[in-house]
Fold this sequence. Notes:
alpha+beta, 9 helices, about 30% strand
Amino acid sequence: MTVKALISALTEQEDLNFLLTNRVPRAALTRFMGWFSKIENPLVRDASIACWRLFSDLDLSEASKSRFKSMHDCFTRELKPGLRPFDRDPAIVASPSDAIIGAHGTIADGELFQVKGAPYSLIDLLGDASLVEEHRRGRFVTLRLTSSMYHRFHAPYDAHVERVTLIHGDTWNVNPIALKRIERLFCKNERAVIRTHLATGEALTLVPVAAILVASIRLHFLDLVLNAQTRGPFSFPCDVDVKKGEELGWFEHGSTIIVLAPCHFDFCDNVSEGARIRAGQPLLRK
């Protein structure tokens, strides 16, 4: 058995995986990784990326460059032009990122779920009663980015960004093992609520959720990095029009984006739990 196969077999043991990725000083490890990943030393960079390859299916063949200044530079890499074309059908809401599709469905009177049998409330996630009302019976889909994926995310639709609200919290792992064991996990973790409206005035909301080793989100239209070190104010009014496919920002490492859409949108045929989706591919249809 290869080293990579052995590591994979060990991490598939749920109790061990949960212990190693959650029953640790999560905040301290996340701060350390934020510092360590930015070290621009060739030996540190190469050793870090080599170790990263052992634990994942990292593929850098799509990256726009072959040499990186640091592990952070590799995590937040751009892709070669044209590799993530966005569906131009105006009836389609596209996936904002590369991801594995998780729980999705209809928001039942302000309640959704992180995995089957594990509900949580929209008000706990968003902290905004008026926004909850706009999404009370809408659609939701959970998109999980693994550590090896392309970490930039884009506008899923032509929209107007009105406000971004940072909600401080924990950094639990967001993998399926943790989602089964930690109630209301998304409501406990650090997250940003990106409030946008379509041309019709209907709400389309993105909620990037942080996780262990990743608690920083870069948003271009604010020219800010939001993380645990961000101090008030935590609500940022915006007046920005974005076009479908326009890059909004990136996660420092991997994480989750919860997409909230109007009730008259339906899921596209390619949307099923556990399926992989790429930025730009169809997610929801009017």
